[in-house]
Design the sequence.
């Protein structure tokens, strides 16, 4: 799990996929952090991604390092709007703070990916690494 988290911390721009009416929807996102085995992300209550995850919590995201090593994570969104997590994100992420101002902004939502699977691969010829969390 530690290798997975280090990769996400170094490559925090991810591309998150959800579904809407049977169609894939992908958009750039920012990985926030891991806490107690949960991968945390945030968004706005009024964005389409929030409604999509409410209807169907299945998601997948990917990110790639400069050397083209790639990580793909699959799981389900846990729409756990945890105030302590919101405060931590606001304190640690200036961009998010500039958008939402404070943790108690009703627009600001957080969610985690729990109990997922991940695969990390590159072009070294070595077999892919798999993770479960």
Sequence:
């Amino acid at each position: 799990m530690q290798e997975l988290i280090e990769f996400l911390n170094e490559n925090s721009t991810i591309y998150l996929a959800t579904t809407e009416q049977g169609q894939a929807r992908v958009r750039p996102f920012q990985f926030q952090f891991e806490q107690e085995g949960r991968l945390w992300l945030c968004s706005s209550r009024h964005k389409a991604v929030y409604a999509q995850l409410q209807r169907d919590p299945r998601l997948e995201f990917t990110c790639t390092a400069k050397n083209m090593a790639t990580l793909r994570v699959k799981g389900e969104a846990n729409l756990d709007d945890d105030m302590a997590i919101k405060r931590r994100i606001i304190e640690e992420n200036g961009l998010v703070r500039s958008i939402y101002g404070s943790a108690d902004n009703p627009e600001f939502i957080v969610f985690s990916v729990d109990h997922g699977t991940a695969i990390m691969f590159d072009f070294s010829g070595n077999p892919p690494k798999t993770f479960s969390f």
Summary: The chain has four helices and eight strands.
